[in-house]
């Protein structure tokens, strides 16, 4: 708890990559994708694109418990990055 007696929000996002034996790379998202977490999410997408050039990337967002406007923007920007690198990028819920 903080000094005001209110609980502090703990921002956490876990991104886990699962390789689909040469098919799509599936990233599972768990936690919150908000303005506090978009940097780490973007880094994970960039790394996935670099490590798996030309492969399809699927973001499984079923584990997200919170998504704000910054998180939505990050998903759209990552979609553009992946497309520019020749990777198909999809989001499942």
UniProtKB/TrEMBL annotation:
Entry-linked InterPro entries: MlaB-like_STAS, STAS_dom, STAS_dom_sf
Residue span, STAS domain: 14-93
Superkingdom, taxonomy of origin: Bacteria
Protein name: STAS domain-containing protein
Organism of origin: Actinoplanes oblitus
